Here is the input.
Amino acid sequence: MDWSPCSSKKYGIAVACFNKNGIHRLSFKLGDRICILEECQDWCRGFVEGNESIRGIFPIKFVILLKDIKERVNLQEADPLATEMTSVLREWGDIWKRLFMEGKSFECSSLRKAMEDLINWRKQLIHDTLTVEQLHDVRNRIISKINWGNRKLGLDFVPRVGEKVVGSSSVGIFHLYQVHLTASEPIIEADTVEGPKKEPSSSPLTNLLLMTAVRHFGLTIGEDIEMYLQLYDITLGKYISERFLVKISKDVSFSSYLDGQSTCSAVFTDICKQDNLRDLYLVIYVIRCGRIVYADSCKKPPQYVYRRPYGCAVTSLQDAYAGFESIDGDGKELILRLYQCDDRDFSQLHEYLIRKQNSKFSPLSSSNSQGIVLQLNFISCNNGSPSMDQQLFLSKSVLVRKLGFPDIIMPGDVRNDIYVHLIRGEFDRGGKTAGRNIEVDIKLVSGDGQLLKDSISHAVGYVCASFSSLTLHHICAPIWNEMIKLNVPICMIPGIHLRFDFKYCSSKEKYEPKLFGFSFLRLIDDEGTVIQDGNHELIVYRADDPEKLVSASYASLPSTPHELHKGEHSEYANLSCLGFTRSVKEWIVVEFQLCSTKLTQNSDLLALLKWKSYPDRILEILRLVSRLRGEEVVKFLQDVLDALFAMFSTEEGFSTPHSGAVFVVLINVLNLLEDSRFVHFKPVVDAYIKNHFSAALAYNGLVDCLKRHTTFLPNPERQPQLIKCFRSFDFLSRFIVQSWKLHSRASPSDEGQQLTLIITDLFDSFRLMMDTTYDIETSHDAKVIFLKVMPAAISNFLEVLDPESLAGGISELIDSLGATESAEEIIAAKLHLIKRIVATTIFSQPSSRCVALPVLSHHIRLHLAARQDLSQCAAVLGDILDYFYKNRTASVEGKVDNIFYHDVEVLTVSLVDVLVQTTLSAIDSFDPNVGSLEACFLGLLQLLSECHYDRFWEDFGDRRLLKSFLFRFLTLINHIIINPEVFPSDWFVIRLAANVVLLRAIKECSKPLIDSFLDAGYFEPQLWNLYLCLNVTFITQPSLQVEGFGESRKKMLGNAGLDMRIQLGSHLIFCWSTLGDYQASFIPGLVSQFLEVTLIPEADLRTRILGVFFDMMECEQKVHGNFKQVEYELVEKLDFLVNENKGDQQYKELFNTILMEKARNCDLSWRENCLSFVTSLTRLLERLLDYRMVLYGDENLNKQMSCTYNLLNFYKDEIDRQDMYVRYVYKLHGLHVTAENNIEAGMTLFLYAKMLLWSNSILPSNGKRPEEPEWKRKEELYLQIIDYFDKGKAWEKGIQLCEELTEFYKQRANNTIKIPVTLRMQATFYEKMLEEHRPETEFFFVGFYGCDFPPFVRNKKFVYRGLEYERISAFTQRLMSEYPSTQLLTKMGPPPEAILRSNQQYLQICNVKPVVDEAVSQLGNKHEKLRNYHCMQNVRQFILDRPIRKGNANKENEFQVSH
Here is the structure.
């Protein structure tokens, strides 16, 4: 069947691994994206995306076509985060497999858990079943997990703004740096290892909500139950919340109650986290509703129902909150036991329980008591309000508010609550021995006696017309401690009051409760304000007829002893004439608490609101208002502002005699909003200015007051008032702007010239005020605050003023601060002002920017040069650069945007040189702002075009200044490239963006170098050397070596354009060729630099740069008549760099091809030397690559020895490099020591020792030996070699060295002390030769056949000396383990040509016998041990036995033709 090509490329996803080794098969892994080119029935042909060079066939069932999963793919592509997760999981999957194969179980399990989390979250993300907040939470978790995983695995950091991934060109470099810096903070993802950790919130705006639900009530009483839940503060000794009520009927079980009711759960709000939970308790009071005296035997329902004490339970919120963070979403369940006490102490039972005064209470003795089961849950919410998900969770619960205003007062939080606490009373016994049962009915009554319905609430959600208190048994001094809330209308009804009716309640059911007296409490005092908070003692009046109370005729009587003693109530005759008698010995105490945003208890505030009624008291009222508490003012903020502006000016816009005093009160009021408690009332002022402010002519007066206040700066006594004025300048400027808008609507003919003149005059006052001639100590704080608030005022003025007209005043204001200002706070505030100006229309409009930019850049320059507040300087400059980057315009049809060009030129001329100098100084002093400064430097270079560079170079008229700048400029660029601390290696995105900028900057720097420093007399070799080395540093930096990158990095580099290494490599060649005869100045210094570039595995780059070496050789040949320096440096650096895993076989071939071609075409006078040198270097490369291939691994020890031996011979015989030769002698010596080849280790060192003489010449240190005389080094080497020979039992060789040492000591050193030592050593060796046994060793022939062997053994034959007592089987096994993929040849004849050319490995091993030397044979039988030993030493010839066949083989007798 023929293969049919696809009409268009098809793509599929691998659903299983396919790893068949058959010919033409394509191998791929699960999840790979496959491009399909051809089809043939059930087979396809294609390649794995990203590796197009390898193509093959595979079964179609192993992939699923993308068209079959189109909907799934489209869904993923619709969400970039889901697409990113897919690529992340694939990348992590490969790493996970590698970790598994390496046996790193802990890392493997951690990564697997992280991948499982990502997979689960990805399902949630794609299925789209989450709420908005849940989805937001999941996405944050995904991003955090990806960042955590990438950091742990050493992968690239992914910069983000929110959830959006930021690319290298999508934002400016400074912004990109800030994104990296902010988002790369250490991510604590402890659930992978230890479990989740929650950091405690430090925000003062974080509140707790306490959700409580009654899950079980295990008491059976036989009467209705009222269960009150309330929060109590033991430190304050009072309740801090409203009451929550759970009613349980005696006829309904609690489980049935739960089924039919939804009010068994409540949420206590506004529990600030910063409150001490240790002091807070949840108190539960249980009240039974029935007879006064409970009778279990009486089944008849009571005729009159009374509220009677039953029991109490408490729990600590601290104990409940402890360990809460480990509780799941259902909360924590508690079982509380009820306690009881006497009626007299019932109101204080909760305190006894908290303080554990056990003598005051006892457990409830009910046999059916199983306690109360509560479920508690703490919910954290920010800014005082729950989130949407929390609101959904709490929607079926009753909200129980805090008594009084919460710590966070939100605008729009309208409350009009009055809380009345019935505390205690004192009543007459009435001639009886026992106390009476007293019940108090509480009613809210109007001035005409009308009962206000649904006006009393004794618990959240329960309203009634009257409330009956607890009835305490036989107690004439009852303590109730009961609380009610009054729902009063906002417009208080005249004469409204609270009445308390007192009744005697008989324990006998046949008697109904009887009225015996009453008290009342006026809610509005004589001044029209609500009565003050606190305890109020009320007079008890006798009354037994309820009808007398209906008309409320008692309302004219005094209600408290305080009123009674006032002049208008001093006559007791009024009491008797109304038919009411005061009971002198009886009284009650109630506590009053107002929590209202509409009613006030302050007469001074009320006088301000009604100022027109007191025209003669205006100044006094203003003085009193200045002393009011903030809570009173912010509740009536809009009304207060209306009153103040009404007093500030007349309807015609003229000032009033008290305008100055009004202005002072106004700034005091506005300063209240800086308090954290009232900061949320700022939107109230915003709304007031926008919708309610109506003083159309107030702008003139406000500006005049501001100007007058600027004159207060030199006066220390007026500083507090001036500071308040400046703090409220934001709101004042908005009042001015809004006033002008209102005026403009009324007078449209005025186009703004008047306001421009007014504001200009105001800014002149500011400029004079900021003059540094003032005493800094007295003006410091005011200046700082003014500069901090000035940006907001500028934004306000820009609503009505032209930016250009405002830019001039602001520029003069900034200039007025001068360059000598040294106060850190003022400098910081000034830079903050500049930073905010950049974000306004002053900077966005070209005309105003042209005015402001030179001034702003000048002041930034001053502070950079003085190194003042570098962090803020960098932030300001970064904002400017980001603005220009976002608003940059490309050239259209060759035309340049002149405005953009001019603005960038202003920045360049003003800041580049000082920015470079300051950054280098910061680097030297290890300043923490180095990163920000370098980001600013790169951001500025990012804006420069070729024209900017050209103009910048032209501005340097002096070559010395240009030279100095270029040195600093190039040094800074070099630091950015090589320093990993500022831009870590995993910040690949910003490194890529920086490299794009630096590439252009480096190229542009060549222009001034060529134009100014290449002429005769002006050539600067140091500057040129720095520049050329910088080119090499850029090309060789790790962040550009694409060969080792993953797909994501390669994709980003591809988007950045052509390989930057090739671009700068071409430029480097251009600069090198431009040098001409000056090239000799850089030889041999740049040889190693260029060599490092050529070793980069990029063919195009290698081809371009390799020719430079011939240029260097040719240049040196012309100057010196040889190229020894280039030769020396090339050999030295090739050895070093190749050992650093640089270079490959392709490099060797390309090196030989290019240089050999140039050598063949060079001048005849040195062609032969050049050809010979290139040939030698090629052989050196071959040996170095062989050596590097076997450099690591114990199994390669023998291979390392062979390669090292090849290299040392090369350095000695071919190029005569003694230093390199000695280096590899030591390396070979180390390998033999590792393998315990003592004789070979000694003989290796002897190669170096015999090169030395017994002279007094001083030899430099070689890394192994210090600087010392030549004879000393040779002596030490001999002693070391003798020791090795002794260990290897080669005493004959040791004796020879001992003899030479003895001769040296006799003839040259005159050292008689060491002669006996060497002689004794020599005698010892003779004794060992005759006495000690030395085992015989065998020799083996080994042939390495096949092209798969390394080049240094390929198709070569060797004779190996076996280890002691090692036979051929052990030797074969040892060699096979070194080459595990080899096949052993069983025939000893020469291998056929097919084996020699095959891609396999074949070994041929057999025993060989040494041929005894004639000198050994002359020993005879006198010294058998010596003779046997010497038969195995210094062998040069071996005998190999193998069969020879003559004639045709006989199958029946193979030995017939064998010989």
Q: What stands out?
A: Confidence is low (pLDDT under 50) at residues 69-77, 187-205, 569-573, 890-894. The first helix runs from residue 70 to 78. DSSP finds 50 helices and 36 strands in the chain. The radius of gyration is 49 Å.
